[in-house]
Design goal:
This protein has a two-stranded antiparallel sheet with strand order 1-2. It has 15 helices and two strands. It has a domain of 296 residues. It is mostly helical and 432 residues long. InterPro entries: FA_desaturase_dom, Fatty_acid_desaturase. This is NADPH-dependent stearoyl-CoA 9-desaturase. It comes from Mycobacterium conspicuum.
């Protein structure tokens, strides 16, 4: 049930973890030392292109007498919102471009085109999620309060609705993110926490109201002045563009945190966590998906979720380059580098959510060795001496080899059990 001892699960010694931290620190330093005008030009051009897409989408909607023009405007607007949300807003607010000292492209000043107030998101996401990644009861992104995504979450009757809940979450992801940072459950509490919840609720309501007026009142009214458009057509287009943006953002995020191999942790191993152990937990708790240049850009480079969690404030345009070196580090220490195609990761996420809508008694795998829930106890049968240097290859035997060994051992056991079941009836028939 979740990982309680990260070094033991990873099959690494204290010296290994210290060396791992040293090598990852070196990667960070190399990138920081090489940042310059080319990177600054990238983000400025991205912002300019996004604003151009936004204007183009709204002009198309103003001239949308034909259905094809309306769809072109809607999809262009949705694309503009996706780029602003994923490649610009998310990354700027992580402080990835603070090194430029540009007051307009800075984590403390950027306000994204979302219902969530930026300062709330920065506080909740940058600190809570990235510091306590996938730690149960500390990282609110584990299930977003409503989904059961690991067997460590006790099954409740409402979990039977896991699939429809996830669909609603995807369609309204913008609003889920906004409400997640408000802590409405503390609204009526006395004391400082209640005061904070009430203040954040007021600030969220103000920001959300501005978004509603912009998308569903002001722009539809402005567009309706055109003889080729109506208030309703633009209102519908804006609503659909927001839903498309929410669905895409949800898909990218769940592919980075819920597929097979994105591990969950308990808070028992947090005391005295070293930098190397934090790095290790980020590597084990995140997952990538394979992407070319276009998909990388549209995902805000969060197809490299592992690298983003290791270096959340490094510019997104550098993560592909960083991923080559991180993958080499994983190979050196025999750690799995969790990645697959986007379709595969997304499909595995929905499969896990569907499977965990059922109580554990209906699930086949153990709570310590399931695709979505593993712990160091899955390696009990390997014995204490497994994590050593392979006498044949001379390579360190670590987590990747250990997982393969357990899978091989269990497949062999299943084959033996199957052979016994097939043999028993044949003996009985012969006796008859």
């Amino acid at each position: 049930m979740a990982i309680t001892d990260v070094p033991a699960f990873a099959h690494l010694t204290d010296a290994d973890i210290e060396n791992l931290a040293f090598e990852l620190d070196a990667i960070r330093q190399d990138v920081e030392d090489s940042l310059g005008e080319r990177d600054a030009r990238y983000i400025r051009r991205t912002i300019a292109a996004q604003r151009g897409l936004d204007v183009a989408g709204r002009l198309l909607l103003a001239a949308s007498a034909k259905r094809s023009t309306w769809w072109a405007g809607t999809l262009t607007l949705a694309l503009a919102k996706i780029v602003e949300n994923m490649e610009i807003g998310h990354n700027v607010m992580h402080g990835q471009w603070n090194w430029m000292n540009d007051p307009e492209i800075h984590s403390t000043s950027w306000e994204w085109d979302m219902s969530a107030a930026s300062k709330h998101w920065v506080s909740a996401h940058n600190y809570q999620h990235h510091k306590y990644t996938n730690i149960l009861d500390m990282d609110d992104d584990v299930g977003y309060f409503i989904l059961r995504v690991t067997r460590d979450q006790p099954w409740q009757r409402y979990n039977i609705g896991n699939l429809p809940y996830n669909l609603v979450l995807a369609l309204a992801f913008e609003w889920a993110i906004g409400l997640q940072t408000v802590d409405l459950e503390k609204y009526f509490d006395d004391g400082p926490e209640g005061d904070i919840a009430r203040r954040r609720t007021r600030e969220f309501t103000t920001k959300a109201a501005r978004q509603i007026v912009k998308d569903y009142v002001a722009f539809p009214a402005l567009t309706s002045l055109s003889p080729a458009a109506t208030y309703k057509s633009t209102l519908t287009a804006n609503a659909l563009a927001n839903v498309i943006r929410s669905f895409w953002a949800h898909a990218v995020i769940v592919c980075g945190h819920f597929p097979d191999g994105a591990e969950k942790f308990t808070n028992t191993d947090m005391a005295g966590e070293t930098k190397g152990e934090w790095y290790l937990r980020q590597m084990l708790g995140s997952a990538n998906f394979d992407a070319g240049p276009v998909l990388r850009f549209l995902s805000g480079n969060l197809c490299h979720q592992i690298e983003h969690h290791l270096f959340p404030d490094l510019p997104s345009n550098r993560l592909h380059q960083v991923s080559l070196r991180v993958r080499a580090v994983c190979d050196k220490y025999d750690l799995p580098y969790t990645t697959a195609s986007f379709a595969m990761q997304y499909g595995r996420t929905w499969r896990t959510i569907a499977k965990l809508s059922l109580p554990n008694r209906y699930l086949r795998d153990t709570a310590d060795d399931a695709p979505e829930t593993r712990s160091e106890r899955m390696f009990t049968e390997l014995g204490p001496g497994f994590a050593a240097t392979d006498p044949v290859t001379g390579r360190h035997r670590g987590l990747k080899t250990a997982i393969a060994a357990v899978r091989h051992w269990r497949r062999a056991n299943r084959r033996r059990c199957g052979s016994r079941q097939q043999t028993a009836p044949s003996l009985s028939n012969a006796q008859i």
